Amino acid sequence: MSQSHRAPAPASASASRPRGPAPGQPGAVGPGFVEFVALIALLMGMTAFSIDNLLPAFGAIRADFALENANHVQVMVYAYLIGIGGAQFFYGPISDVLGRRPILFAGLAVYALGSLIALFTRDFNVLIVARLIQGMGAAAGRVLAIAIVRDRFEGRDMARIMSLSMMVFLTVPIIAPALGSLILVFGSWHLIFVAMLLLALALFAWFGLRMPETLHPEYRIPFSMRSIGKAAMLTLTTRRSVGYAVAIGLMMGSLMAYVGSASQVFQTDVYRLGNLFPIAFAAVAGIMAVASFLNASLVHRLGMRRLSHAGILGFIAAGGLMVASSVIWDGKPPLVLFCGLVAAGQFLFALTVPNFNSMAMEPLGAVAGTASSFIGGFTTLLAAVLGFVVGSNFDGTVLPLALGYLVLGAIALLFVLWAEKGKLFGHQP
Fold it and tell me: Which residue spans traverse the membrane (predicted)?
């Protein structure tokens, strides 16, 4: 897309520190830098928390509902992701009209409703619907966290904030499976949904008390299909945004395949770690947190393209090694080797996807809510579909997962090349 089509950013958007309360919020007390990052991270982390703390309960849920095929339990993950992906298309445009705060509160209420339904159902199909509703509510946090960051930051500053937020919220997968296992010691899997409900209430209170409206009046879109359509069209016709969005969806597909099949790989079928499963899962998630910290530290010096383009090339190499080791050891490579290769892939994932997201959003500051919706919705739906395809082919070995990493990473690289017109490691904005 030519420069003439880029949405202009406000003059103050280049500031390297958070702005104060948005115009129209006189006297509002906004969070400081650390609190801002923590709140954004928790909004983003709600998605991971609502997936990962449920993983240790897969066996109990399968037994409770008498499911014959263990792969069917994975549908709880993908239904949740479909809810997130589908609802994201609506939250962003509406937040560009009404503001970020009321839309987030509505989303948290929907998430709480889904948690309550899941808590009391005795039917697995209803549980899947409850997970879909939960996802539809959680989508508000996914969209608005990014839109709020874009309201207050741009460029490398935005990438730094996103990486710091990613680092904080990646501690969720480290502790969530262990927390889920701990909850199961004291009661049934229903208590895990109680924890999700308490999370929604905590976010409602924290955000309501501490975060003022961040949408600036000059970017507020009048409620009309024409104006929303123009914002959507700008998002869909910006070459860099589209290319990086597809690449994000492809790489997230490999991550969702890993999350969906992790219980079967580590806990039950391949390595049979049993109650040690949360330790293996946490070790991989911890590597991602370290990578996000490094990304936040290095992005100002090296730039988003150098880090992310090197990251995706390394991700593909890690996928190739996973496939090779899977073939050599008949689909069951040594646990330490497999964990090391998965951790390497996730490390490189964390150096890549946050920067891809920032580069996709960079030209779209004037329509940040709509852009975040369309990019987030598309990438999440794509990741859910691809994760389901890879995860549903689980055959008692890690080969399908390894092939997913390699193939999806390679296709993502092609879209990055398209977005950058064939050039990697280009000039940094």
Answer: 33-51, 71-91, 103-120, 126-149, 161-183, 189-209, 242-259, 279-298, 310-329, 335-353, 365-391, 397-419
CATH of residue 170's domain is 1.20.1250.20
Decide if 320 is inside a domain.
yes
Number of Cβ within a 10 Å radius of residue 223: 12
Tens-digit pLDDT string for the chain (429 aa)? 333 333 334 333 333 334 444 433 444 457 777 788 888 888 888 887 888 888 888 888 988 998 888 788 888 988 998 998 888 888 877 887 888 889 999 999 999 999 999 999 999 999 999 999 999 999 888 778 877 887 777 666 676 776 666 666 666 766 778 888 888 888 889 999 999 999 999 999 998 888 887 777 776 766 677 777 777 788 888 888 899 999 999 999 998 899 888 888 988 889 988 888 888 888 877 787 777 777 777 777 778 888 899 999 999 999 999 999 999 999 999 999 999 999 999 899 988 988 898 888 877 766 766 777 788 788 888 988 999 899 889 888 999 999 999 999 999 999 999 998 888 876 554
213 Rama sector, left if φ>0, alpha if ψ -120 to 50, beta otherwise = beta
Indicate the number of domains in the chain.
1
For residues 406 and 344, what is the distance between their CA atoms, to the nearest angstrom? 13
Counting every residue written for the chain, the total comes to 429
Q: How far apart are CA 67 and CA 130, in angstroms?
A: 18
Give residue 237's identity as a one-letter amino acid code.
Answer: T
Tell me which residue range forms the domain holding 273.
Answer: 32-419
Residue 271 falls within a domain, yes or no? yes
CB distance 351 to 291 below 8 Å: yes
Secondary structure of 381-402 as H, E, C letters: HHHHHHHHHHHCCCCCCCHHHH
What gap in Å lies between CA 385 and CA 366, rounded to an integer?
30
Q: Is residue 406 part of a domain?
A: yes
